[in-house]
Design goal:
Layout (H helix, E strand, L loop, with lengths): L10 E9 L5 H13 L3 E9 L12 E3 L6 H11 L9 H13 L4 E5 L1 H6 L1 H6 L4 E5 L10 H13 L2 E4 L2 H9 L7 E3 L23 E5 L8 H14 L4 E5 L5 H10 L6 E5 L3 H10 L2 E4 L14 H8 L4 E4 L14 E4 L4 H13 L1 H18 L2 H22 L1
Parallel strand pairs: 1-2, 1-4, 2-3, 4-5, 5-6, 6-7, 8-9, 8-11, 9-10, 11-12, 12-13
Helix pairs in contact: 1-14, 8-12, 11-13
């Protein structure tokens, strides 16, 4: 057995195309949580390793696969000439991945995400291991027609189980052709032990601090947040809004804030570490997240930052989008509006501003909701149970 791999428990090979991008804290928690629980050995196979300082993991457990020397031209061919969003692996890359699966004596392969599984089809067709595929949101709504749709249905056929982070996402996958008997719910896990919750109170002189933490991309409804804040600020001129995160819409958002004459009260933090993000949660009074379906079909599962905010006792004003209603109960742990309803979001915020009892009750309910349904301990137990289910089924078939 290779150094660093135990031979007393089953080995699970987690395939992440990039291990890991800054916004993939949830994957790191899942993989390391499984390793710490001791029921499975977690190794990682990846095309690229990034952000080692933020996502430290034993070197011997991370197996980078050399990129194809002509990958740029292959990407151009498949994406530009053939109109495909996913670029299939080359023979060389497929060979290297299969070799790592054999060398580590992996008994199960877990692929993140759906579009990556499509790229990985050359391996999945040859791999004799049971395969689990996780879908997290956009990978169930973007580029699912034509040839890409056919390849996605092949993934469904090969996979032993298909996991999704919300019941709404499971419905989407069933609609795309995944057999319902293969679908399993696996919610995001939040490590509650290190998160302190507090009850918010009415700030002096109306100095409300509103927060949205996310990638600055279309599906997050950022311009709806800004429009709602514009309405709120007319009545509460001391209120502030913080966008915590980075992304392609940052410049346009700043220009919009400037045109609305809100630049002095809208703050952009850029990407934040977990510690800095939780400091923002601590200073905020309400978390805003008006998600919407993007023009390309991109949508949410259950946003990780939303759950972390709720774990700190932040009430949420959000939209009835994707899996958000599975985390936020309207009128209890927050408020839910229709997508794009800036006026409704502003009205919900103003209700909290004028009702301290409702605000405080929502703070408590937000933390309780995460404890009951989204704790990391619960998630690790559930994914372990699903792995055992797959391995037992595989042993019966062989």
């Amino acid at each position: 057995m290779p150094w660093g791999i135990r031979d007393t428990v089953p080995v699970v090979a987690h395939f992440c195309s990039t291990f890991l991008k800054p916004d993939m804290q949830h994957l790191y928690r899942q993989i390391t949580g499984l390793q710490a629980a001791g029921e499975f050995e977690s190794i990682v196979i990846t095309r690229s390793r990034e952000n080692k300082d933020a996502f430290w993991y034993w070197e011997k457990k991370v197996r980078p696969i050399p990129k194809h020397p002509l990958r740029f031209f292959r990407r151009f061919w498949y994406r530009t000439c053939r109109g495909m969003s996913s670029v299939p692996l080359s023979f060389r890359e497929s060979r290297d991945i299969l070799y790592e699966l054999k060398r580590t004596r992996s008994e199960l392969m877990h692929v993140y995400f759906g579009h990556v599984a499509v790229e990985l089809l050359p391996v999945l067709r040859c791999c004799r291991l049971p395969v689990v595929v996780s879908f997290h949101g956009a990978d169930a709504g973007v580029d699912v027609d034509g040839e890409s749709g056919e390849r996605l249905r092949e993934v469904f056929k090969i996979a032993s189980l298909v996991m999704a982070r919300s019941a709404a996402l499971l419905e989407d996958l069933a609609g795309l052709g995944c057999p319902e008997e293969k679908l399993r719910l696996l919610r995001t896990g939040i490590p509650l032990g290190g998160i302190t919750a507090k009850v918010r109170s009415i700030p002096e002189e109306g100095r409300w601090n509103l927060l949205q933490a996310c990638r600055l991309v279309e599906k997050k409804g950022l311009f709806v947040t800004l429009a709602a804040f514009d309405l709120v600020s007319a009545k509460f001129p001391q209120a502030t809004l913080t966008f915590a995160g980075d992304g392609p819409l940052e410049s346009e958002l700043k220009q919009r804030a400037d045109r609305l004459r809100l630049s002095q009260r809208v703050r952009f933090t850029g990407f934040l570490s977990q510690e800095a993000l939780h400091a923002e949660f601590d200073q905020a009074h309400v978390f805003i997240h008006p998600s919407q379906v993007g023009a390309d079909g991109n949508r949410e599962g259950v946003p990780n930052a939303l759950l972390e905010a709720m774990a700190t006792g932040l009430p949420v004003v959000a939209t009835r989008h994707g899996g958000i209603p599975e985390a936020v109960e309207d009128g209890v742990s927050g408020r839910l509006l229709d997508e794009g309803d800036a006026a409704g979001i502003a009205s919900a915020l103003e209700e909290y501003f004028g009702q301290p009892e409702a605000l405080q009750a929502a703070c408590l309910a937000a933390r309780i909701a995460v404890e009951q349904h989204f704790s990391q301990e619960r998630q690790v137990k559930e994914v372990s149970r699903q792995y055992r289910e797959v391995l037992q089924l595989s042993s019966r078939l062989h």
